[in-house]
Structures are given as C-alpha cells and as structure tokens.
Amino acid sequence: MPKSPPENSALLIIDLQNDFCSGGGLAVPGGEEIVATVNRLGSGFSATVLTQDWHPAGHSSFASAHPGASPYALTEAAYGPQVLWPDHCIQGTDGAEFHGDLDTTQADLIVRKGFRPSIDSYSAFQENDRQTSTGLAGYLRDRGIKHVTLCGLALDFCVKWSALDAVTNGFAATVLTDVCRAIDLDGSKTTAESEMAAAGVTLATSDALL
Ligand code: VGL
Ligand code: ZN
C-alpha cells in the first residue's frame, strides 16, 4: 500500500516515451527501467500529469535541421544556446508514444510541449525561450496544487527544468531521483542535481512513497 503523498500534491511524470527508452531516437540509458516504479507510485496524488515531448518533423532542435551539424552540438537559437538533438518524439510517430507498459489511465492531464517549430521546451512549465508558458502552472494552481513530485526522463534536461520552474512558479518540488534516468552530457547529471538542490528542490527516493 503506497504511503500518502503530501496534501494538494501532483505527480508529474516527464516524457516517459519510446524515443527516450532503449532503441529510441534519443535513448536515455535505462529509461525503460523506471516504468514499473512509476506505475507503483499510484493514485494517492491529488492530480497526475504526464508530459509528452511532441515535435513537428524538422524541428529546430534537431541536428538534422541544421546542415552540417552533429547531434549534441550547441547552436545559437534566437533565445540563446540550444543543444541539437537526434530526431526524436515526432508528432504521430511510435517514438512519441508513451512507453507501452506505462499506466496512463491515472493521468488527469497530458501536457504536450516542443510543438512550436522554432522553440524547444525542456520544462513542463515554460519553453526554452523562457517566456512562452505551457499553461501548466495555471492548471495546477486552479486545482489547488501546492506541491509537485517529479519523475521521468531525462533527469538532467526535462526533469531538471520542470523542477526548477515548479519552484519559480511557487510550488514546492520533490524529484524522485531513482525514478529518473539521465542523458549525462559532459557531467550534466551531477550539475543538474546540484542546481536543483541549490534552487530548493528536494531530492528524494521513491521509498519515501512506496
Ligand atoms: C528531452 C532533450 C530533448 C527530455 C527532450 O525529455 O529530457 N531532452 N527533448
Ligand atoms: Zn525534445
């Protein structure tokens, strides 16, 4: 029997999609290993939200959209530095679907992000231009949510930015680090954990809830 999450608390499951799992376009090592635990986190939350990375073909964050560029290189977008990724999570493809074992029935809301051709969005709250809102903060506020618990992929990109923006938007945030996996570009996993801790995000493990 899962232990109760805090009152007015939402579970935010970040980008648990085929392309971030083994064999996917932007596979995060061990991405699929977290699915069973995510399912066990269960229904004790006041709200459960899934995010879905959802790019149009030829998205500006894809290296393939920049002639001569290699994946994982940095480019300068209109809004600042942007990592170029292998093609992933293209709208309507199998890679963009949630992992087949993920129990999506508990989700109240699916937030799609990264659908604007010229703006990437790591965060569930705010796109990479740091100005365009996804609407999630308003949704959570309207539902009386005060605290978000995050898990999913990838710890050092979409989970990190979502957790930091949760705090910026006035929510308390906890990241379940064992229910995340990282891309770990040049030590980005360790940096992400320090940045989150410094911003007041609580780093915890799922045994606090299971
Ligand atoms: C992600 C890179 C590009 C993520 C999404 O889910 O962390 N990373 N798109
Ligand atoms: Zn993406």
Describe the structure.
Helix 3 runs parallel beside helix 4 (188-198). This protein has a single domain (9-57, 88-208), classed as 3-Layer(aba) Sandwich (Rossmann fold). The protein has a six-stranded parallel β-sheet with strand order 5-2-1-6-7-8. Strands 3-4 form a two-stranded antiparallel ribbon. Helix 1 links the parallel strand 1 (9-14) and strand 2. The protein has helices at 35-41, 136-142, 155-168, 188-198, and strands spanning 9-14, 47-53, 74-77, 80-83, 109-113, 147-153, 172-181, 202-204. The protein has 210 residues and is of the alpha/beta class. The mean pLDDT is 97. It is built from four helices and eight strands, in the order E-H-E-E-E-E-H-E-H-E-H-E. The radius of gyration is 16 Å and the shape is globular. Zinc ion is lined by residues 53, 55, 61, 88-89, 114.
Brief description of this entry?
The chain is α/β, with parallel strands linked by helices and 210 residues long. Helices cover 19% and strands 22% of the residues.
Range of strand content: 15-25%
Classified in CATH, the superfamily is: Isochorismatase-like
Sheet with most strands: strand arrangement: 5-2-1-6-7-8
Helix content: 10-25%
CATH class: Alpha Beta
Contiguous runs where pLDDT drops below 50 for at least 5 residues = none
Count of domain modules = 1
Determine the N-to-C terminus distance.
7 Å
CATH topological fold name: Rossmann fold
